[in-house]
């Protein structure tokens, strides 16, 4: 089986002007991403949800702006009939979900390799993202585990607040390098450090 390479492979090991010893932000990529998409077919929501819940030991969330945690996974309701499952790469999860969700009620698709998980963190991360995304990042509006479908420049993606000072942007792989360049450029006034595995 072919191994997927990072869309940011070219940047690894390359120095970038602006790196500081006390950076306001740290920019990187999370490459150990297991991302599954669960699609629910019209009129079959209850059966699909029951199958998924049996595997995940929790109900599919109702909130379109807060991720629900279950074990080592987050479940994000990205539309009324679509969910993302973000986790640690349990090898049998995709197969177990496919077996549990009736084929005429929903589907499970791996998005591994389709999205690049860019990470921005540090004490000035909200200032950085405030220049790039057209949403309110105030903690009372966008709390930890909050998420929104938004854009950085013209690249549509999903922004997740992973913890107090860490945000993750899921960009389409084909636009990952461009989005990375936009982040680097916007981070210069704050001082930044690059952390690529």
Please sum up the structure shown.
By secondary structure, this protein is an alpha+beta fold. The protein has helices spanning 45-56, 93-100, 125-130, 176-187; strands at 25-30, 34-40, 68-70, 73-79, 82-87, 106-110, 115-121, 147-152, 155-163, 166-172, 192-195.
H-E string: EEHEEEHEEHEEEHE
**Can you give the helix content as a percent range?**
10-25%
Q: How much strand content do the residues show?
A: 25-35%
Number of domains: 2
Q: CATH homologous superfamily of the largest domain?
A: Probable tRNA modification gtpase trme, domain 1
Number of helices: 4
Examine the coordinates and then state which fold CATH places here, giving the name of the CATH topology of the largest domain.
Gyrase A, domain 2
Structural class estimated from helices and strands:
alpha+beta
CATH class of the largest domain: Alpha Beta
Morphology: globular
What strand order characterises the main sheet?
8-9-10-7-1-11
| Named CATH architecture of the largest domain | 2-Layer Sandwich
What's the rounded overall pLDDT mean? Answer: 91
Whole-Å distance between the termini? 22 Å
> Uncertain regions: pLDDT < 50 for 5+ in a row?
none
Largest sheet descriptor: 6 strands, mixed
Kindly state the number of beta strands.
11
Summarize the structure in words.
Helices cover 19% and strands 34% of the residues. It has 197 residues and is an alpha+beta fold.
């Amino acid at each position: 089986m072919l191994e997927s390479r990072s869309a940011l492979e070219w940047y690894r090991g390359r120095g970038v002007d602006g790196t500081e010893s006390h950076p306001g932000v740290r920019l990187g990529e999370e490459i150990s991403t297991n991302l599954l998409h669960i699609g629910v077919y019209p009129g079959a929501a209850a059966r699909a949800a029951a199958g998924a819940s049996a595997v995940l030991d929790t109900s599919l969330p109702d909130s379109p702006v807060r991720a629900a945690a279950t074990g080592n996974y987050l479940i994000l309701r990205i539309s009324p009939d679509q969910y993302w499952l973000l986790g640690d790469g349990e090898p049998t999860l995709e197969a177990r979900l496919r077996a549990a969700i009736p084929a005429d009620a929903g589907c499970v698709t791996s998005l591994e390799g389709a999205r690049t998980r860019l990470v921005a963190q540090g004490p000035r991360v909200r200032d950085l993202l405030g220049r790039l995304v057209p949403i309110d990042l105030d903690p009372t509006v966008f709390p930890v585990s909050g998420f929104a479908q938004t854009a950085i420049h013209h690249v549509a993606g999903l922004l997740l607040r992973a913890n107090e000072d860490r945000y993750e942007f899921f960009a389409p792989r084909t636009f990952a390098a461009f989005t990375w360049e936009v982040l680097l450029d916007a981070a210069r006034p704050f001082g930044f450090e690059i952390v690529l595995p």
